[in-house]
Write the structure tokens for this entry.
Amino acid sequence: MFKIAAIGEKDVIMGFKGMGLDTYPVSTPTEGLTTLEKVCLDKNTSLILITETMVQNLLQQLSEIRERTDKNILIIPTHKKGLNLSLKEIKASIEKAVGIDLISKEE
């Protein structure tokens, strides 16, 4: 059976534990990436959620990890305003898949 993991601040990810996800509370971005590397080694984990505050200044390292693993790694939003990393990733994925930007508002 495949598992889903959530990595991030304890107050953000603990709700996922109640839904049966493996949770990995971390307090710094460096700790978050180290944990991400370890979770990527788990053969039963197929999807990893990581909070945007854990990767906001480490996007290059995240990109390198994504290239080395077959796991799906998704950035999830937190209660902090202004980051929008998760929305930017979703927008880029949709644009890549369908060839046009479906999220941005046209003026």
